[in-house]
Amino acid sequence: MLMKTIIALLLVLFPSLAIAADITGVPKIRQADLVQIGNTRIRLGGIDAPSVDQLCINTHSERWTCGAAARDELIKHVGDKSWTCHPRSIDRRGRQIARCEVDGEDIQKWLVANGWALAYARLSKDYEADEQAAREAKAGMWQGAFIAPWDWRVRNKKTTILGATKPPENASAVLLASASGPVAPSPDCTIKGNVNSAGECIYHTPTSRWYSQIKMRIAKGTRWFCSVEEAEAAGCRETRR
Fold first, then answer.
1. Alpha-carbon distance 138 to 158, whole Å?
2. Are the CB atoms for 120 and 43 separated by under 8 Å?
3. Cα separation of 77 and 115, whole Å?
4. Contact, 126 vs 120, CB < 8 A?
5. What is the 3-state secondary structure (H, E, C) of 125-163?
6. What is the distance between the alpha carbons of residues 119 and 108, in angstroms, rounded to a whole number?
7. Minimum mean pLDDT range among 14-23, 70-79, 226-235
8. Structural contact between residues 32 and 14, judged by C-beta atoms closer than 8 angstroms
């Protein structure tokens, strides 16, 4: 009993000790850097991809759903092939942080090299060269204008606008908004987030009392979430009613 208690305590204090063996299977791709194989949620390590409701600006200065595009391009690229993911650690939301491959191809490398994700340099230098190549080739998001996914999640108004296209005057307002039209960007993304009169972000699941009354409008700061974890990671809390 004492040994079990010690092991449990170590896993709490040092979650990396709980790293699982390789995870294989055909995943459900929630967004470009977040997949699920069986009951295991996997965050692709070393990169950061746009959330499915993140907006970018294209070469015609029009807004487009680059987050959904990144996910869809990955789905097209891998089809229904089986993945092999090599866990490295576990994040605070219980997701496996892993490097994943399909037929020997590094998925993270493909995403960054094709402009659908950025190298997460603060934690890993593995994909910096791929990001530079994508920038020079104006691949994916780099052809237009966008802000880094980590800045978009916290809505940092002072963030640098990236990309090859000269952003229009209203670029910040567009890029800091989300694809929060009346229709969810994905059947898996049906949690509504809105900002109350006190400036607090509140999320509503489809079973919430006021769910149907929340009108999704970009100008109001509303946005769609694909999971409770994603909503809470963005600083939102669940409605109390």
1. 23
2. no
3. 14
4. no
5. CCCHHHHHHHHHHCCHHHHCEECCHHHHHHCCCCCCCEC
6. 9
7. 14-23
8. no
The pTM is what? 0.71
Instruction: Work out the average pLDDT over 96-114.
Output: 97
Residue range 156-213, pLDDT digits in tens: 667 889 999 888 887 877 787 766 667 776 677 789 988 777 778 899 999 999 899 9
Beta strands 223-225 and 191-195 are antiparallel
Phi, psi (deg, nearest 5) at residue 54: -75, 140
Nearest one of 102, 126, 122 to 112, comparing CA atoms: 126
